[in-house]
Amino acid sequence: MGSAGLQQATAKMREAGVDKVAIETFAHYYRLLEHGETGMIPESSIEPLDMPALADVEVDDAAAVDALRATVVIKLNGGLGTSMGMDRAKSLLCVRKGLSFLDVTARQILHLRQAHQAPLPILFMNSFRTTGDTLAALARYTELPVEGLPLEFLQNMEPKLLESDLTPVEWPKDPTQEWCPPGHGDLYTALRGTGLLDQLIDEGFRYVFVSNSDNLGATPDPKVAGWFAGSGAPFAIEAVKRTPSDRKGGHFARRKSDGRIVLRETAQTLPEDRSALANLDKHRFMSTNNLWFDLVAMRDTLDARGGILGLPLIRNVKNVDPADPKSPKVVQIETAMGAAIEVFEGATLIEVGRNRFVPVKTTNDLLVLRSDVYDMGADFVLDQTVEEIPYIDLDDNYYKLVSEFEKRFPDGTPSLKKANALKVKGDFTFGRGVQVIGEVELSGAGAQRVDPDSVLSSGA
Hints:
It is a single chain. With 460 residues, the chain is an alpha/beta fold. It has 2 domains: 4-356, Alpha-Beta Complex (Spore Coat Polysaccharide Biosynthesis Protein SpsA, Chain A); 363-457, Hexapeptide repeat proteins (UDP N-Acetylglucosamine Acyltransferase, domain 1, 3 Solenoid), CATH 2.160.10.10. It is built from 13 helices and 23 strands. The strands form 7 sheets. Strands 6-5-2-10-14-11-17 form a 7-stranded mixed beta sheet, with helices on both faces. α5 (131-138) links the parallel β5 and β6. The model has no long low-confidence stretch (mean pLDDT 94).
């Protein structure tokens, strides 16, 4: 029967109409949490690893196109962009020439279909918060849905648990805050629970490419598809070399006990191991969250495990209302989809260029994406125009929220092609045609303006 807290939580999920598979998966992780599982991966249990690079791999053109024709694309699209002050689907944010993430993604897919005569279905994993806005925005792309397949499926939801006793939290001020997504590891649970896993196999598809909707570099490239198909691996992740700005993020390693590849997230790192986490010479590679898996291998593995993939638990402690630091502490049970790499024997990694990893997590990233650091061709793929992406650090007091950011760049972004870094401390509004050259720091009190056509350089 389980504990009172588990019974209350699962009853709440059933009452809300949550899928049976998702409830069973939640119960599995609840029991782990109840028995003290933390999901921590000690530094002593892992070792660094290396991997091949896509640039060094040769893929036959015909094999690449064949692989693409057997591929389904899934975009994780459940986020609201709340950290940037948004209250609707983050993918609706305008990023290039009046186009949103969704616009660019849809056009990338339609171009690839035409160029390679591939069906290339795209499915969006939405949350209950993003489904309406997303489908409305995509309605103009009448050719995007593939006959017989949905354009979206919904991420599951689960109760937030009081940290004090692991019972479902009650928050009458805003009952929607009582619920949270189970992390993007829910992808596999949702595919199975909706029946999409079997349906895609029955439709003749073999491979899935998954990426975040805020990463416009993550296209289903034929070469990567061909490499994955040719590898024979059941599961793979695209990796990039870590940079100084990635010191606090997760990384790949090899588990000493069985040789399996693991993805260690920051939340799974012990305090005493944080210096090792930040060691870029030791742990050199991080995940792009672009991953590939074999549909049949995924189905067979889920069947063998009773529908529960068994990803490592992530115990995430937050306030029930993220905007209210005085609201009760809750535990969110989460899993990361990339952690599935340790489940599959023969899973692999490949190093890709940073051009396949262009996430937008902050307005710093948004400034770069909108700038001339990238070009966009007729295929709607981002082309990086510089060797190194400039480092951007905008003052959170004035630029963190998208609405405030927009006010301070009313005539477009500065030219950053010749920039190494731009650091802004204070309230600066930029005129049209500003250029940044080298390393530039701006600071000052009160509202200030950078005049149109100004050239900001290291020595200025």
